[in-house]
Amino acid sequence: MSDRSRRLRGAVGALVVACVLAAAVAPAGVAAGLAGAPDAQPANPSAASPPSATAAADAVGPGLRSANGTVEVVVRFAADAGPRASADDDGTAASTEDLRTAAASAQDAFERFAERKPGVAVERRFWLANAMLVTVDTESVAVERLLDVRGVERVHENFRVEPAAAAGDDGAARDVRHALAGPGRAPAAAESTSANATYGVGTVRAPEVWEAYGTRGEGATVAVLDTGVDPDHPDLTLSGWAAFDATGTLVSEGVENASDADGHGTHVAGTVAGGNASGTAIGVAPGANLYGVKVLDDTGAGTFAQVVAGMEYATEDPAVDVLQMSLGVNEEVDEFIEPVQNAGDAGKLVVASAGNSGGGTSSSPGNVYESFAVGAVDESRDVAAFSGGETLNTSTDWDNETLTADWPAEYVVPDASAPGVNVSSAEPGGGYVNESGTSMAAPHVSGVAALVLASTSRNVSDEELYATLRDTANHPDNATESDARYGTGIVDAYAAVSSTEPFYDVASLDSPPAVERNGTLDARATVTNADPIRGENRTVALRLTDPANESDVRELTATNVSLEGNDSATVRLNGTVPSDFATGETTLEIASPDGNATATVRVADAVGTVNGTVTHAEANATLPAIDVVVDDGSEVVAETTTDENGTYAVDVPATNLTVTASNATYAPSTAAVTLNGSGDAASANLSVRLRNGTLAGVVNASDDLAPPANATVTVTNGTNATVVAVEAAENGSYAVDLRPGSYDVAAASPDFGSDARTDLTIDPNATADPGLALDPKAATLSGTVTNDSGDDPVADATVAAGSASTSTDAAGNYSLAVARGERTLTVSAAGYAESSTTFDLSANESREANVSLTPTAVFEVTSVSGPDEIERGTSGEFSVDVRNAGRAAGNVTVNSAVSPSGTVDPASRSLSDIAVGATRTVTTAVSIGGDASTGTHEITASTGDDARVEAFTVIDGDDGTSDGSGDGDGSGGGGGGGGGGGGGAGGGGGTSPADGEETTGPTNGSDDSTNEATDSTNETDLTNGTVEPTNATEPTNATDSSPNGTETPAGDTDESIDDETVDGAEADGADESTDGDGTAAGDAGDGGSDAPENGGVSDGSTPGFGPVAGIVALLSAVLFARSRSGEA
């Protein structure tokens, strides 16, 4: 194709593509237009028009109102579409799946809008905040126009990050960064003030919790949302890690990827759960699980999307209990309300710093009402000057009335305080550093929260944990109200843990089986304090459910139970059964606030007592642990068990009753009693017998085939008396009940042998299998073997089936014992074709199987004869005699082979229609190579029925040489060379014998008799293209023609080149000459392998035409290609 054609085709292709794209894009552009997109319409017609300028301005962040170019925005969706409603009314946590589902539903319309609208791209979806991070090209879409999409409530910045925190006044970008205050870092060793702990750890009284309650936060998990964590610090053990970029995208996960280039997060993590590798404890809860969640970059700053993504990650993990957030944005930021509230609804406590701008200020998310905001105090317990704190007015300080509807009119920030001045903790690289700020105070509170959670087995809600931390804080001024400097005071771990209620477990409930309406119900249970904390006056109650109404549960009585940590006590409770309860079976419960135990009790109008003793019927002994069941004819009304003396007593409704005693070992025994009224008593003494045992199993066959279908199992006792005889089923199975004892068991079948077991023990209510297996009796095959052509018996035929075999007698009869199953009967005899028949034989079966054999030819090799010696390089002829020794005429193939070397021609000869007794002879020539080893060789002649081996000796020749040169005595010279192309010339024979003198071998110098018989080699001398008749025994040298017409004298056997006689054969065929038409002169029809006769030698000096022809062909091809190229 020409360049022009290619360009034209490319242009056409481009035009087609452009047309296709134009056709596809044009309608899509219309559909994606804001005004025409149905999903972009507001939810109701009244909202269809664009919002007013004032409404749009209020719903768009100040930094976005005049934005140009491509901007990154956070789109927030209406609160009533958010997930808060999924929290249960009883305060139990909502699942993160509920939050995801609600957010997805609210965001669906915007997602579809963005897919169709050029210039709008969704970068990240959030569910903890009902929000999306969106990139907007303001040249295509104004930010205000996003408010037209259904469900969108407002649009704000992604809080672009700056290195320094500053108050965000109107129009300025808000900054998210960690809450670090003071002149900077002061590297130092971990400083101990008491109990080998930093002053901060000591101030919150963590060591007292460790010692008094034996807990260091084990089982609780705190996620530190910060700049990262150094995983290699000796005081820190990370259990989880994740890192997010500025768009909220997860960029790394797994502890092996943890890092902290800033150091702030490592310091915070050390205060939460650091160890004491330096000899000084730096962490409040060193046993807690620690997660590192990187939401601030290496300068200590981040974005709203980053922080919310980290909060989502921690909230979604069910193991996380506390979100530790030493970060913030100055002033009140409504955007943080929703993620904090939803984290709380999911059961997480959000602990955040109050800010570092001093009194009268605070930062978000710490100042969100649901957060636990933390202020900072110094070692003297005085509030740090930088510590934030203020009283907030919900209606004037916050804009989102929907999310703040449940807040009080006013509240104080911080909630409480903790050490935050010159706090010593970990820094990356394994060292320690002093830091100041509310960032340092908040992790003390998170550590205390972990101690509280670890101290109890109860499920402590985030609301309870929040209240415990606030209510147990210690105010230095003993103030009873929260203030804007301390909050409720300095957190106190020991007081918080001590005030936490432990888990009370209830077990081992003991109650009467029956009670009367309006009567006393007396019950007791074991109550255990499962935690190390002392339980003070915890309520344990006795409750009863109306038998006719499951929802009517009455508390009959209750008591307060105080228990030391890990202690237990038996609590006895009694109350009156309501008179308005129905009669019948119901549930009794003794319950603590944490656990309960239940039992079944029967409510009756009148209750009496049944008692008695249970004895062994055969041994006259009382029996313990026998189950006693009392029923009234329609249902069981009571159950009990005999004591160690075999006695029982049970309260039951007063009526006509049946008492039954039994257990797994003893068979049931019953007695009838009657109780006439309340307080009546009746005795029922019962005697029980051992339950029968069972003898059961399958009578199998020892050969693993089908079991006997008619086996009998006989059981005898110690006196050899038959106890029982049972017929096994067709599949061999059987079962019989026997009294406990020792028995002998035997099985037998008419077609099988027998099997037995002695002293087999039968236990009560148990099954014994003796594992019986019978040997099947052999089947019998018998019959007569005859000749199928005349029905004459065939004597001495071999009859075999499986491993059994025999021979027929003179009358052709046989009898064979064969194992049962599928068996193949094979019959063979000399002169007959083998016969095979398959039978499926049963045990002990007798079957007649007569067999007719077909006569066949059998060929014996009766002799192999030939020369005793063969010279190397020559051949010898062998005769093979084959006789039909069979019973029918037939065809045979005689195969011959020689070893260890040599060839046979022909190697195979077929003979047909050989009569019975006839002998035929075949001949074959054995050729031995000139380089064959001397000594014994063997020729093997074989038919399909017989083979015979004849040995001969290979010897050196006395009248020939092995190199192919004639020596004048008439022996053959060397073989001819194989030439490429037309074939090389062969080596010549010796001089011809005198007239009248016999030759001792073939005249062909190769001494190959086969070749001599089939090839007229060298009968024509093609010299220089001239054909002349030659003497068959003295040909001219057929290979010494020169292609340029120069002749070499014929028959010259002594010509040499460079004083050396040329070998009679050329390995590469280079001495091949050609005639005028290119036919190889020496070619005898076998590819140029024939050797010249009569001692001729190849001169080796004149090349053949092979290379020349090759060169000519190559030049022709080149010229042809050029001519074709010229035509093109």
From TrEMBL:
Which positions are catalytic residues? Answer: 226 (charge relay system), 264 (charge relay system), 439 (charge relay system)
| Matches recorded under SUPFAM superfamilies | Carboxypeptidase regulatory domain-like, Starch-binding domain-like, Subtilisin-like
Q: Where is the composition biased (Gly residues)?
A: 963-991
- For the region Disordered, give the residue spans: 36-61, 783-808, 928-1108
Residue span(s) of domain PGF-CTERM archaeal protein-sorting signal: 1102-1124
Low complexity biased stretches: 36-59, 795-808
Into which family does the record put it? Belongs to the peptidase S8 family.
Q: Which NCBIfam families match?
A: PGF_CTERM
What organism is recorded for this protein? Halorubrum coriense DSM 10284
Q: Name one GO cellular component term.
A: plasma membrane
| GO biological process, any | proteolysis
Going by the UniProt record, its keywords in alphabetical order are: Hydrolase, Protease, Serine protease, Signal
| The Peptidase S8/S53 domain, residue ranges | 217-489
**Acidic residues bias spans:** 1052-1075
Would you tell me the protein name for this molecule?
A: Peptidase S8/S53 subtilisin kexin sedolisin
List the InterPro entries hit by this protein, alphabetically.
Carb-bd-like_fold (IPR013784), CarboxyPept-like_regulatory (IPR008969), Peptidase_S8/S53_dom (IPR000209), Peptidase_S8/S53_dom_sf (IPR036852), Peptidase_S8_Asp-AS (IPR023827), Peptidase_S8_His-AS (IPR022398), Peptidase_S8_Ser-AS (IPR023828), Peptidase_S8_subtilisin-like (IPR050131)
Q: Where is the composition biased (Polar residues)?
A: 933-943, 1000-1047
Query: Superkingdom, according to UniProt?
Result: Archaea
Alphabetically, the GO molecular function entries are: carbohydrate binding; serine-type endopeptidase activity
